[in-house]
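To: structure subgroup
Subject: Chain for Friday's discussion

All,

I'm putting the inputs and outputs inline so they're searchable in the archive.
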Amino acid sequence: MAHTETIETVADCRIRVMRKGKGEPLLFLHGASGAGRWLPFMEMLSERYDVIVPEHPGFGGSDTPEWLDTVGDLAYFYLDLIDHLGLDGVHLVGTSICGWIAAELATRSCEKIKTLTLVAPAGIHVKGLKKGDMFMWSPEELAQNLFHNQEIAKAMPQPGNEEELLVVLKNQLMTAKLGWQPRFYNPHLRKWLHRVDVPTLIVWGDDDKLIPAGYGPAYRDLIPNSELEIISECGHLPHVEKAQEFTSKVVNFIQGAA
């Protein structure tokens, strides 16, 4: 059975939502490249959970609302979406810039959150650990630097027509608006990560050229009741590059947290 796609309206903003599965709700917040397709890891997780994948305001097929200025705005938006969908006991998973959104959301309220999984999240700065700069990379360099396995990098789909190219540009523009300055972090976030009061899993690839794996221990030390898993021979997108291993770690963590 294929996933469903709906349009939901929250805070006067229409967003596209993909969904499939049964069980406890798992809300996945996608990274800078958007949520254009239902990916293999989503399918794997949907065998155990009700997987919900919204396309963020400002990305892809969703509206770009006037109120959207910061990652904090999206954190509040997703608290509203959780209420709008009537969700409770949510397993919240966010990757990269949207791991940052998930972390910001959890510092505001964990009332409806059961577990938190952060996948190579942006959001903090660690002195002496230099991040890559995706805004300065060419499309070819970006693909190469996101993956350890260069065969996967070469196989990543490129825009096939003008409509797909416009989506890519829309996603890039919103990513720049949210993460340009300071570069992909909120200098105040680290002060409030102690407020995250649900079991938390932090996942990182050991060969992450965008946000180095050294950020993992920093996040772990700032969030109580958190654990760190490093995936070997893996870049910035463990859920794509090592989908099976990633999925197993998330499922084991959620089951252990229960």
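Points worth raising on Friday:
DSSP finds nine helices and eight strands in the chain.
The mean pLDDT is 96.

D.
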